[in-house]
Design goal:
Helix content: 25-40%
Mean pLDDT: 91
Number of helices: 20
Oligomer: single chain
Radius of gyration: 26 Å
Largest sheet: 6 strands, parallel
Distance between the termini: 44 Å
Strand content: 15-25%
Structural class: alpha/beta
Low-confidence stretches: none
Length: 601
């Protein structure tokens, strides 16, 4: 393709994102800023919001940011888009005039890593589209994380834009130090007059709930620590009483909206000198300079009511998140202290990526702590939503069966708490909030969602081999009531973290369960679930090889999933009388037809 110098009026680009948890959406906004600096007019949409679908062929340049969810599936907000792409009536040259690039988001501990983005890219090529930048693949478990790989990919996009879409004479790229106009603006809805009422931040956290379509308000009836106080990990058994009966399938999840604590919100307000205006009502509107097709998705689709700075920071913004490089780039322009400005600008410079990692990611330093250290930063209302990421929903596997009770639902949750080189203990924003819930007093907005294990009718007619070490046993507890199963459970100590042990023993006595345990610290030689899978290889092969059963693997996404896969391959070799390569092919075949499923975190 010959480079043609273009003017801003002819430089338009479409960004489509497919996001299950919001990461791809966040990255689409970062990519949009890069494209704007190259004088492109940008339209950002979730994939399914592209209407009509046929308009895809009218775009000269399209970038797609595609997350993979479940067993290599596209996210919910891209399912219709993917179905439309697969229509057999589409001619193979339909997208001949479209140039595109794909960035995939995934987790390499899953067998189908970045599968959704890869298959979208392949399909676009089949339909005649021209891939102008190499596919990027961000790994949530990689050393650089998704953000690090994305930064390199964006650099490639810049190079492509400069070579293939150069600017017309007399026009230049907008420099990085120039702050781009805001897209969405917060403003006060009142004049500021009138008396001030005392506001209880704890009440706002506990009793206000952001609206979510399809959610129900449940009452906490149990918040019980089930590991001893001297155990290294605080694991809780939660029960929520439902206002109406709900039926769910094993492997389904509960989506929860975490909340920030009043003391953290108060600190943020204080650092920005906002305490006196924290409870004035706000409105959220698109910036006046944007045309209708230039307005990006609203950063808060369903705001809390009333919307104030205090409720916004409590329910919608992740003020304890680890700040990204883009954060430092923007806040460097929001301080009058020259020393602070220079240091913040260094963190935003790609050549100092290791220093940024050492300052933020390695010690898990929060955005709020950065604002404390660089206390001259002053954030305007027009920049708040750009600087602070949204507080994302968290999904937890349901740990109970609706066959037993469809008016209450259980979770098994490990409370995230750990130390780094920073003196203050690090805590997970969602599990910290969960741990604070008071039985019979606290209410929680919950949303039932289909899980990636996707139990099918045929799965209930054949054996199921469940591998669930630690809290990975949660969805297995739901599944056990649906058929006879083999359960491989692992933990450190029988006496300290053998979750639901009395239930497992009772089910074994009833013939519902064949249970095998691995307690890694109860003897000199460590034993893990993969050890026991090898030891019980004959029973595993009987269930999977002879009776064509299904494997569910749930739990930590560290070394465990790969170790379990290796153990299964060795079982197939020995008890299935296969060569190693044939055993690997057999396991891959199980994955393709849905007989090997994984849910790790």
């Amino acid at each position: 393709m010959k480079a043609t110098r273009t003017t801003p009026s002819s430089r338009r680009v479409l960004i489509l994102y497919a996001s299950q948890t919001g990461t791809a959406e966040d990255l689409s906004l970062q990519l949009s800023a890069t494209l704007e600096r190259h004088r492109f007019t940008v339209t950002i949409l979730p994939c399914d919001a592209l209407t009509p679908f046929s308009s895809l062929a009218a775009h000269d340049l399209v970038f797609l940011l595609i997350s993979t969810t479940g067993q290599g599936e596209v996210p919910d907000n891209a399912k219709n888009f993917w179905r439309n792409l697969l229509r057999k009536k589409i001619p193979l040259g339909w997208l001949g005039g479209v140039n595109f690039g794909v960035f995939c988001l995934g987790d390499s501990t899953y067998p189908k890593f970045c599968w959704a983005g890869r298959k979208v890219g392949r399909r676009l090529l089949q339909l005649g589209a021209n891939e102008v930048v190499g596919r990027g693949e961000g790994d949530g478990r990689g050393d650089e994380g998704i953000e690090g790989v994305f930064a390199y990919w964006v650099d490639e996009v810049r190079n492509v834009l400069r070579s293939r879409w150069p600017l017309a004479d007399g026009l230049w790229e907008i420099p990085e130090y120039v702050v781009l106009p805001s897209k969405w603006v917060l403003a006060f809805a009142d004049s500021g007059a009138g008396g001030k009422e005392a506001v209880d931040g704890l009440d706002i956290m506990r009793n206000l709930h952001a609206p979510r379509h399809g959610s129900v308000l449940a009452t906490v009836t149990r918040n019980e620590r089930i590991t001893p106080e001297d155990h290294w990990q605080d694991v809780r058994h939660f029960t929520f009483s439902l206002p109406k009966s709900v039926d769910w399938e094993p492997g389904d999840t509960l989506s929860l909206s975490p909340k920030n604590f009043p003391e953290d919100v108060d600190l943020f307000l204080s650092l920005q000198n906002w305490t006196s205006i924290a409870d004035r009502p706000l409105i959220l509107t698109p910036a006046a300079h944007l045309l209708p097709d230039e307005i990006p998705p609203c950063p808060i689709s369903t705001p809390i009511s009333p919307l104030t700075l205090r409720t916004l920071l409590t329910h919608h913004l992740d003020i304890t998140a680890i700040p990204r490089r883009s954060f430092f780039s923007l806040v460097a322009s929001l301080t009058t202290d020259e020393t602070h400005r220079e240091r913040l600008a260094e963190f935003a410079d790609p050549q100092w990526v290791e220093e940024l990692w050492d300052y933020t990611t390695r010690p898990r330093r929060s955005l709020l702590e950065v604002l404390q250290e660089f206390n001259t930063i002053r954030i305007g209302l027009d920049r708040l939503l750009e600087l602070v990421p949204r507080l994302r929903e968290r999904q937890f596997s349901i740990a109970s069966s609706s066959l037993i009770s469809n008016t209450s639902v259980d979770l098994l949750v490990a409370i995230v708490k750990y130390r780094t080189i920073i003196k203050k203990t690090r805590q997970g924003v969602c599990t910290r909030w969960l741990a604070s819930l008071v039985p019979e007093e606290s209410s929680v907005s919950i949303l039932f969602q289909k899980g990636s294990l996707a139990l099918r009718t045929q799965d209930l007619q054949r054996p199921v081999v469940m591998v669930g070490p630690g809290t990975g046993v949660a969805p297995m507890r739901a599944l056990l009531w649906h058929r006879v199963n083999l359960l491989f459970f692992g933990c450190r100590n029988r006496e300290k973290d053998y979750f639901f042990s009395s239930e497992w023993e009772k089910l074994k006595d009833q013939g519902v369960l064949k249970g095998f345990t691995a307690f890694s610290r109860d003897q000199k030689a460590k034993r893990y679930v993969q050890t026991v899978i090898r030891e019980e290889g004959k029973a595993v092969w009987e269930a999977l090889g002879r009776r064509e059963g299904t494997v569910f693997v749930c739990g930590s996404s560290g070394r465990m999933p790969q170790a379990v896969r290796e153990a299964l391959i060795e079982v197939f070799e020995k008890w299935g009388d296969m060569r190693r390569e044939d055993a690997k092919v057999y396991l891959e075949g199980m994955e393709k037809i849905g007989r090997y499923k994984q849910e790790t975190w």
